[in-house]
């Protein structure tokens, strides 16, 4: 909820016309983030498409700052460059507004990042929110003050109380200003006080003593000590008015680093005196008291509220226990995601793992300190998802760390090496990726593990295909698939006494389907189009029946390539759109970029140069985000180039470039909606 601040917004708008770094500073709860959000939402500095927002409050590791900012910019880098270099290259001469919210958590790293960005990106403007200044020469400081007590503060309090269904009695209204004054007009304190009206009148709140809690481990540099104490008082009121179950849930929820939903709260926080039903009821109570913020069906503890809960968690002696519970929960989630990957649950897991990124990082950090074998497993299970969702650098970082830290041998370690090799290949580091593929092949052959052989074959075959060698790729994949079939037959034919052993030998369906998918690329690359189309049709039908999207999208991709080569233009358009639909379901930027390239070629084949230019321009924006020079297998490049040449001839070279440029600068969401069959926004 946003009230007032018209003068501050106007001043910030004016400041950003001449200043490239504006830091909004002030005590916790004064409304720095909301002011910055309003500045962006109203488009006072730039339109939404040219504004990026990075929530730094999620971070506990300065090394993850640049990857988080890259993600906020919509980058899904597939190169071996460092994330800060990727950000600088992508922004370049763009006119962009970057908001860095809650810099105080990683102040030194934020200071260094801002210094580099301002130096290398001349059109970039940055708004930082922080309880401390960055202390940079270019910094323009805007001290955010509390709301005027008799006007805006009172309006905010009354609006929030009305929303919560606890409107003050008419006789209490003349005390609203007194309460706002007592709380120094701090927006967060006012919202918490409004939530407290569920159990107390305004008069009772005014009679309550200031709340104190030891701050020895949490003195976060208050700029205005009294106002800091005021916020502590409001937090204390809320805490005292909570039921015992709500207090315990508040403390336990403080272990969560990002957004959460009710099932996660139940899974993490049930136990001891809290039953699952208790958690559900307590969560509703915390939302009602404004302790937990609800946004679009998801929940969040605001930064200061989380800090307060963390203090109580430590006081209760549950900090270590909850950290272990938290890490174990996300390891179980990763196992479940892996087990159901080739099913209708796949798209949901992609979203879940993307949204849980800060909590997965926290879980990995905990395991690295306490259980390196569990860390290795978690890094392995998340590595593939992260690589596909634009977190290849983070996947590589944790896979490297856990492989060094853990002595664990066997299938998990082999798979970790495979996942690390995949990150290198997809970043264009073929030498390292190929070296790891050969390590995986040697290990799989030594252990006669069919699943490990399939994964190793996939990695080596991908390396071969990316370097234009489809025949050795096909040979290796067919050998691995045949070996897996024989192993599967052995397992299914085992007697009752060997069922458990047979289950262990049954090759993983995921690995089988991934190799079948890559076999399509090899067959198409060799010109064996009829075989490839038959295999792709069969594989796609299986994926549709399962509700699987990732493999299905690449079957569509190959069918589009085949249709283009066979000059079946209408079919090529159908397959390209189907691929894009599947890729959008899982948020695979690299795959969407490939799909837009195919869509452009298909439009050209259908004689629509205008649409081909738009698809190409929309794709270029995503290729910039991916940063990868390799657009799929080399044999596809002639199709893309031929489509571009034809489109230029259809509409004229100058017109083609004009359309393409317009699409590259249009809203990406609108362009993808058009690509899927909607109306063109241009």
Automatic annotation (TrEMBL):
<dbReference type="InterPro" id="IPR027417">
    <property type="entry name" value="P-loop_NTPase"/>
</dbReference>
<protein>
    <submittedName>
        <fullName>Predicted ATPase</fullName>
    </submittedName>
</protein>
